[in-house]
Amino acid sequence: MLEVAEKIKDDNAIIKSNLYLSNTYFRSKLMTQSIKTIDYALEHFETSKNTDSILLTKILINKGKLLGSLKQYNKALSVYDKAKIINQKSNYNKNNADINRQLCAIYINVGVILKAQKKYKKAIRNFKLASNLSNEINDQYKFALANLNIGQGYVHMQEIDSSSLYTNKALNILIKLKRPYFIKECYENLSYIELQRSDYKKSLEYLKLHHKFKDSVINIKQMQKSLQHQNNYAIKLVNEKNKLKNEIKESEYQSKIWFWTLFSILLVLALLILFLLFKKSRQNENLIALNLKNRELNQILQQIKQALNVLKKDQHTEITPILKEISQQINIESDRKELELFINEKHTEFFFKLKQKEPSLTKKELRLSSLLLTGLTSKEIADLLSISSASVDMSRYRLRKKLNIPSEKSISIFLSEL
User: Fold this and answer.
1) All structural domains of the chain
2) pTM higher than 0.70 for the full model?
3) Model pLDDT for residues 46-84, shown as the tens digit of each residue
4) SS in 3 state form for the chain?
């Protein structure tokens, strides 16, 4: 029930489930768990901004009962004071049975604590308030319980006649309600009363009845104990189940963390590799593009040089230093060798695969293959190598034939698939 309530985020159901669970722990004498659960119910009530005063009073009554059973009397009385204030604020209708029943329970529980503290007069005052209120709302069980406690209180104060009156009132109702535990208490009280009156015969009769119901209570307790063991086992199973669920959740959470961490690392590595490949590709493209530009520049410089040579023949001696400078700038052979060295360094593995496929390939054919691999056109290759486009086309045709490349397939794509 609690799992369902938490899953659907029903605050009211969560509070009530924890309240029920606390009572279960209490009956199983698992006091630590009971207190922890009731505190959680109270905390959840406050944080959820619940306005159900009857539910809040019920939580406080249960907490007071728990603290009382642990002999934390002052804390218990403080909790009951809070419960009483909330009950009185919500008691807008005197005929509201739930509110009056709760107030009656508060009076009885406070009386039980005061009796344990040997404050008998105060205890009896609370029990009488409970007796009057339970009579008004016709709650016979609480009426009998209040009167029994009044009778026990008077015994401690040695007011025998008053004790007898209230104990007999309680006994008659408890016999009708078939409450053996409290009937036993009544007979024990009456036995003591008659003993104080020196009526030993009656005292003995009541004592026998006390033992009779005591045996009945023992049998009931044994049955309850058996049920309690079963209940404890059920609670243990629930706790183990919840623990296992939490462990599974934790394991799943850790797995998710590892997965996303590993995924992030792999993603970063993949991006880094792509960046490096892109950078390398750009470097290749830039060097080839630069070489092409150098070729174009060299061609322009050659044209200027030729024009200046013509002028030189006309006795323009001042042109000689300019021609010398241009000659130094024009270095076609050097550019070609630099490009060739770059290609050899970058395409070593590619050349190895190409040689394996066709060992008869010449150096020129390997160089052409590497340029085609970069996606250059015949014209660009012709410019780079300072040859005609027709020569490049012829070389391409021979290379295609040597490598047995189908006519419908691009030579660049074929080379990139090696």
Assistant:
1) 1-90 (1.25.40.10), 344-418 (1.10.10.10)
2) no
3) 888 777 888 889 999 999 999 999 999 999 999 999 999
4) CHHHHHHCCCHHHHHHHHHHHHHHHHHCCCHHHHHHHHHHHHHHHHHCCCCCHHHHHHHHHHHHHHHHHCCCHHHHHHHHHHHHHHHHHHCCCCCCHHHHHHHHHHHHHHHHHHHHCCCHHHHHHHHHHHHHHHHHCCCHHHHHHHHHHHHHHHHHCCCHHHHHHHHHHHHHHHHHHCCHHHHHHHHHHHHHHHHHCCCHHHHHHHHHHHHHHHHHHHHHHHHHHHHHHHHHHHHHHHHHHHHHHHHHHHHHHHHHHHHHHHHHHHHHHHHHHHHHHHHHHHHHHHHHHHHHHHHHHHHHHHHHHHHHHHHHHCCCHHHHHHHHHHHHHCCHHHHHHHHHHHHHHHCHHHHHHHHHHCCCCCHHHHHHHHHHHCCCCHHHHHHHHCCCHHHHHHHHHHHHHHCCCCCCCCHHHHHHCC
